[in-house]
Amino acid sequence: MSKAFYITTPIYYVNDKPHIGHAYTTIACDVLARFKRLDGYEVKFLTGTDEHGQKVGKAAADKGITPLELCDANSQNFRDLAKTLGISNNDFIRTTEERHIKACQALWQRLEQAGEITIGKYAGWYAVRDEAFYDEGELTKGPNGEKIAPTGAPVEWVKEESYFFPLSKWQQPLLDFYDANPDFIAPKSRFNEIYSFVKGGLNDLSISRTAFSWGVPVPGNPKHVMYVWIDALTNYITSLGYPDESGEMATFWPKSDPVAIHVVGKDIIRFHCVYWPAFLMAAKLPLPRRVFAHGWWTVEGQKMSKSLGNAIDPNMLVEKYGLDQLRYFIMREIPFGNDGDFSEAAIAGRINSELANAFGNLAQRFLSFIGKNLEGVLPEPNAYTADDEVLLKSCHGLLDQCREAMERQAFHDVIEAIWVVVRAANGYVDVQAPWALRKTDPVRMNTVLYVLAETVRHLAILIQPFVPTSAAKMLDQLAVPETARSFGFLGEAHALKGGIKLPTPTGVFPRYGDPKAGPNPGKGA
Ligand code: MSP
Questions:
Q1: What CATH number is given for 4-295 in this structure?
Q2: Staple 280 to which of 7, 62, 151, 285, CB 3.0 to 4.6 Å?
Q3: How far is the CA of 14 from the centre of ligand 1 (A)?
Q4: How confident is the chain (525 residues) per 10-residue block, as mean pLDDT?
Q5: Are 67 and 60 in contact (CB under 8 A)?
Q6: Which atom of ligand 1 is least distant from the CA of 13?
């Protein structure tokens, strides 16, 4: 039976244009999904759009269109982005879909039947921009003396009939759950942040609104629509077919040994690490395995904002630098979980030094040598020297290292582990100097070329989740069949056969020219 793995992105608000922040989360999830598939897992990968709430209602009204018209147009932008980024999601959910409304209402009824929903009156502060309630004590004064939320969003006083979820009662069960599952929230700093927040006490949560109607109607009382976060969080089980608890729910949301990982930005952990597990516990449904909170990107040292107009369009980056180049850079540049800065100099630098010079050249040099001097036939190896053994051993040990880092969602560590071998292989070329051996010791030359080919085969197989198109080209050039590219084919047992004919090599990772004027290396790369 295959092992299951479920990975989700947050669902994106449709009132924003896709930017590098969205691309980041989605690419990270895609890398994980691809890695797990190559490692033999049955993977479900979900992304989508979050389409309800006051904010969307207001944005549509401002434009003079219906909320659904706005959602249709903007949801498509995120779907298109997923395509541009080469994302391998199995489902794209929209919270306006019938299946989702059905799932939300079923979850609501289940909570109601469990005595977890009561009706009362809500009076308090609400920030439409954040779709979040705030306590008086959390507010500060803005530039004009008005009250603002900790995020800087304006707040309004809301007083209306509302349904409540008794979040306060779940304080201790949540703390007990965190204690028993210290890996539920990662990285550790976010775990600590949530733990102390919950320890500080929880207020009951208003979970319906009557002031607007753009939302999922509360069953039996359609004057109320559900609070947008209860609606949004439910998407993770809607996609699995909830309320039907067989099928994908049984596989990807199992009663024990959870397999779901939610990747989110650090700004939305309270919803994912406090509300979501509390709703699930209250509904007597299983919990996901982990919420991983990544950091935020600034751009050329500045916070991205609408007013600065500096949000970076990922489509432009793909066009300018190439898709795999962007995917590599974004996962390599900052340790996953930390904040980081996006700069054009940094992406150009990594493309040239790491992809073109280090990895691209490693493959290109020996492959074109074989093409030119050996009629493209991969030579048979002879007896291995200690240097050969060391390099091959480091290739054979790579999968375990990558797996271990991937278990922690430490993408940068996976890349670094691979690059340790890239650097070792380049050092090996320098020391062995196979080009010089052609005249002096062709037998030894054959072995060196073979060891290099086998090394690049390992590197290319393992780097696939990050740079799928380029890795595929590299594997094509080594004549590795498409059916022999999963992690099960790593190691000696599936080593390349000497004597096979290799196709004519072409460069896989071109250099990027002057970042301002240079040609697009991604085109055709
Ligand atoms: N709709 C909610 C999520 C509901 S999930 C049940 C939402 N949407 S969002 O579109 O505002 O944000 C989606 C994700 O983009 C968040 O995880 C957020 O952290 C991320 N990012 C937004 N700006 C970002 C950066 N500048 N850098 C990195 N990620 C950023 O929240």
A1: 3.40.50.620
A2: 285
A3: 11
A4: 90 92 97 98 98 90 94 96 97 98 98 97 90 90 91 92 97 98 98 98 95 95 96 98 98 97 97 98 98 95 81 94 98 96 94 96 96 97 98 98 98 98 98 95 98 98 98 98 98 97 94 58 41
A5: yes
A6: 10
